[in-house]
Amino acid sequence: DTGVSQNPRHKITKRGQNVTFRCDPISEHNRLYWYRQTLGQGPEFLTYFQNEAQLEKSRLLSDRFSAERPKGSFSTLEIQRTEQGDSAMYLCASSLVPLTGVMDNSPLHFGNGTRLTVT
Amino acid sequence: AQSVAQPEDQVNVAEGNPLTVKCTYSVSGNPYLFWYVQYPNRGLQFLLKYITGDNLVKGSYGFEAEFNKSQTSFHLKKPSALVSDSALYFCAVRALQTGANNLFFGTGTRLTVIP
Fold first, then answer.
1. By a Cβ cutoff of 8 Å, what residues of chain B touch chain A?
2. Are B94 and B104 contacting, i.e. CB atoms less than 8 angstroms apart?
3. DSSP characters for B40-67?
4. Rounded Cα distance, B104 and A51, in Å
């Protein structure tokens, strides 16, 4: 178990630019989650995948945000036309859920996050 | 709608003393409840969870939490605090009846253990 890996650790970009983050989950985990965390707040859910299928998206996820998990392994989160309000820590987490449709009571395993600063 | 409240932004406790970090929740139906800890510049680490059964659950690093349905609380406790327990603690809930699988987190409580 090498843990959840996120790259890059830090990203500084200018407003209006596009950015892409990568998450490599624990290899046998079938669920992958993206969260956003701002200073003084708890993580806010953005979206999650069951294998390669994106099953749930938060209303926080504007149309500038897109996430993919093409082969059911790693995932990317892209933000287009970044705004200063997008500055945050973006956290990825994974879990192993034994059956499709079963409510997930598995703990999430989080990566160390990607800190985005939009100037 | 589901929500989690951590009423204390900051908790200070002397090393060796018992500690409590409070959490209350609001969901429709039965909850799954979790505690996570976050160290500086790191992701969250799972401590313990309540799914069903015994109201007192034990977790990592000597932590435990008690589920109280009537008070809708899930307070985190440890009998004897260590300086290394100083970190940010998050309570989280997943509501079974909503069908949603996302965890909803509180705003966190910063625990400082004073040597």
1. 4, 32, 34, 36, 41-46, 49, 51, 90, 92, 94, 96, 100-108
2. yes
3. TTS-EEEEEEE-SS-SEEE-GGG-EEEE
4. 22
Interchain CB contact of A31 with B (< 8 Å): yes
Chain A residues in contact with B7 (beta carbon < 8 A): none
Q: Give the pLDDT confidence of A29-77 residue by residue, as tens digits.
A: 999 999 999 988 899 999 999 899 998 888 878 899 999 999 889 999 9
Residue A60 has which token pair? 């926080």
**Alpha carbons A56 and A77: distance in angstroms, whole number:** 14
Residues sharing a CB contact under 8 Å with residue B7, sequence separation 6 or more, in sequence order: B22, B24
